[in-house]
Amino acid sequence: MSSTSTTDRQPTHTPAALIAFAWTLVGVPLAYGLYQTVKTATSLFTG
Amino acid sequence: MAVPSFLARERIIAKPGFNRWLIPPAALAVHLCIGQAYATSVYKAALVKHFDTSLTAIGIIFSIAIVMLGLSAAVFGTWVDRNGPRAAMFTAACFWSAGFLVGSLGISTGQLWLVYLGYGVIGGIGLGIGYISPVSTLIKWFPDRPGLATGMAIMGFGGGALIASPLSRQLMDMYDPSYNPADKTSVPVGSAVAMLFLTLGLVYLVFMLFGAFIVRVPADDWKPAGFDPSTVKQKALVTTESVSAANSIKTPQFWLLWVVLFCNVTAGIGILEQASPMIQDFFRDGTTSAVAATAAAGFVGLLSLFNMGGRFLWSTTSDYIGRKPIYMIYLGGGIVLYIILATLGSTATWIFVLTAAIIISFYGGGFSTAPAYLRDLFGTYQVGAIHGRLLTAWSAAGVAGPLIVNTVLDSRGTPGELVAGDYRPALFIMVGLLAVGFVANLLIKPVAGKWHEPKSDAVRTAERSAA
User: Fold this and answer.
1) Would you give the end-to-end CA distance of chain A in angstroms?
2) 3 state DSSP class of B236
């Protein structure tokens, strides 16, 4: 790790939009999976 | 083994000001994909019909994958730690995706051995490397909350199955119009499963590469704002020393934790493997059960939710109460719950469902807390590689858990006629296993100083940053 030059270590700023996009990308499929599973699980109480 | 420069660890060292909250989605992008491994039951019946073979022959595909997961995590753990998360995620993406593509070819051409090789061996290697790829990085980015960090990622593994199961049904419905996912007796044709494999292989490749693209490692001198490493050292069993992966397996602590994980996973798999028939058998009167097949499927769904939720909730809790106490809860609480399940489980559905759900949440928690426990005992130096070696306990439990339950049930009668009492011997074996794990956890003490890396090596980082 010591190979990084001084220029490489200049401060950066992570765009909030990139963080939001990344979380959305993983959050949407996870929400889909959760919704589908909750729907299936409710049959335990109704089925 | 050198990696191309665009994958090298040196290329992904975060600059000052980088937001660490970009790392959990990178880890989730990988774990949500490889978690598909727990959704193989969706197309099991279709493959049995397509290859005109037994359920056991198809079940072997999953078994090979889990064994390869443990082996590849153990063998490639040091390589993952040395080359960093981008190289590991990229490699995992290639193997996991290639596994699906070769598997798809095997299904299309009617060659089951190609599915063993593809999904089982090649995909299994992707599983192992993918599983450990973000763990060490997350622990380094979240030294103040390692349980929360690894809990988030490993929760993704549980979440992957929640996504893959309904998604696979919908895709097979699209590729085979005669298949009706709502009808439990409907089975899709083999070509639909081949297309499903092809689709999943490509989608997972893109998704995992996204994780590899955004992941970063912290600089050696980085620490979260307001975080004082000396506060970590004050906690019992937590070290700031470094133990190498090679030395870790020479310590009793590693093997005691191996036994803890093995016992916890074996006990959980005992329920997970049999969940659907088990709830029906517990409330069986003669040949009919008070629990319908659809309700049993709902029970499996509920367990999946608790498996996933437990991974996040319990691992995060361990940051506050400590790793050893949380495993005492998993194992000690598990003993009590298994006894309740064996003795009172058949008296009321709510007792059965509640106890099983909490047991499964402990099962999930056992997985996600393990990396943080390793960090506490061995430091962050080669925690990914050590975690990889520990995962062989999962492979062993994957064989032992179903073997115990199936052997007991086979000796008690035939499926469809079993009742609650037939499960009791298996459940009490699990109680015994959990007791062994509980004692093993109690015996875990700090690692002896002779295993610590020499200070000159271990603190090289601090010296460099101070220079």
Assistant:
1) 58
2) coil
ipTM: 0.84
DSSP letter (8 states) at residue B117: I
- What CATH number should be reported for the domain holding residue B174? 1.20.1250.20
Answer yes or no: do A14 and B18 touch at CB < 8 A.
yes
∠ CA B12-B15-B18, nearest 5°, is 100
B11 touches chain A (CB under 8 A): no
Confidence of residue B460 (pLDDT cuts 50, 70, 90): low
Lowest mean pLDDT among B99-103, B134-138, B274-278, B455-459: B455-459
Q: Chain A residues with CB inside 8 Å of B164's CB? A: 33
Q: Do B25 and A47 touch (CB under 8 A)?
A: no
Pair B34, B131 in one domain: yes
Q: Distance, in angstroms, between B283 CA and closest chain A CA?
A: 13
Residue type, B293: A
B205 sits in which H/E element? helix B190-214
Are B163 and A1 within 8 A, CB to CB? no
What is the count of structural domains for chain B? 2
The dihedral region occupied by B110, where left means phi > 0, alpha psi between -120 and 50, and beta the remainder, is left
Give the residue from chain B lying closest to A36, CA to CA: B166
Number of H helices, E strands in chain B: 21, 2
**Helix axes of A16-41 and B23-34: crossing angle, nearest 10 degrees:** 40
pLDDT one-digit tens code per residue, B352-387: 999 999 999 999 999 999 999 999 999 988 898 999
Question: What's the whole-model pTM score?
Answer: 0.87
B212 and B250 in a single domain? The answer is: no
B204 within 8 A of B193, measured Cβ to Cβ: no
Q: Where are the alpha helices (DSSP H) in B322-348?
A: 323-328, 334-344
The single-letter code of the amino acid at B467 is: A
Lowest mean pLDDT among B96-100, B305-309, B461-465: B461-465
Q: Give kind and range of the element (H or E) at residue B264.
A: helix B252-272
Range of the domain at B145: 1-9+20-224
Chain B CB within 8 Å of residue A19 CB: yes
Query: How is residue B220 annotated by DSSP?
Result: T
